[in-house]
Design goal:
InterPro entries: NAD(P)-bd_dom_sf, Saccharopine_DH-like_oxidrdct, Sacchrp_dh_NADP-bd. Belongs to the saccharopine dehydrogenase family. Pfam families: Sacchrp_dh_NADP. With about 140 residues, the chain is α/β, with parallel strands linked by helices. The chain has seven helices and five strands, in the order βαβαβαβααβαα. The chain has helices spanning about 15-30, 45-60, 75-85, 95-100, 100-110, 120-130, 135, and strands at about 5-10, 35-40, 70, 85-90, 115. A five-stranded parallel sheet has the order 3-2-1-4-5, sandwiched between helices. Helix 3 (about 75-85) crosses helix 5. It binds NADP nicotinamide-adenine-dinucleotide phosphate.
């Protein structure tokens, strides 16, 4: 396995993902930070269009070099592969009660930090109950 990216933003084609993309770009390119990042999703054409739009908006030509990782929630292997490629996954694919757990699980198994923006109480409680001890032992934030 090659060196991990610092951050992968998963679900960049959605409403939340598009918003998060601007913040990830700004955060990683702020002075003094040398963070590597990539984007993930299931539709490469859509992802490329979104990156091109961000490049036009910001004038940052390095955006065309941002790695794209193809990952589909109906293909567990692709989720595991994505999780192994970063130190942190930011997951913007929801609704989380249907789509969130496999990403958390893959991250815990891969030793990868995980963040999502869920406001779904039953999902949050389930994940807190089922994925508490193992990440703590490995010093992971989930
Ligand atoms: N806590 C809060 O305040 C807050 C605020 C906003 C949103 N949210 C939550 O954020 C989540 C996302 O909301 P949204 O409005 O951004 O949804 P959305 O616009 O429908 O975006 C959903 C994303 O999930 C991706 N996706 C769907 N099925 C997939 C699959 N099988 N494999 C890979 N990717 C898949 C979509 O990719 P495609 O483009 O390829 O379909 C898209 O990128 C929701 O759970 C929502 O509740 C929370």
């Amino acid at each position: 396995m090659g060196e991990r990216l610092d951050i992968i933003l998963f679900g960049v084609t959605g409403f939340t993902g598009k918003h998060a993309l601007g913040y990830v770009h700004k955060f990683t390119s702020d002075k003094g930070r040398h963070l590597t990042w990539g984007v993930a999703g299931r539709n490469e054409v859509k992802i490329r269009t979104i990156l091109t739009n961000l490049e036009k908006e910001t004038g940052d030509t390095s955006i065309s070099q941002v790695p794209i990782i193809l990952a589909d929630l109906s293909d567990l292997q692709s989720i595991q592969n994505m999780s192994q490629k970063a130190r942190l996954i930011i997951n913007c694919c929801g609704p989380y009660r249907f789509m969130g757990e496999s990403v958390v699980k893959a991250c815990v198994e891969a030793g990868t930090h995980h963040v999502d923006v869920s406001g779904e109480p039953s999902y949050m409680e389930k994940i807190q109950l089922d994925y508490n001890e193992k990440p703590k032992k490995r010093n992971l934030h989930c």
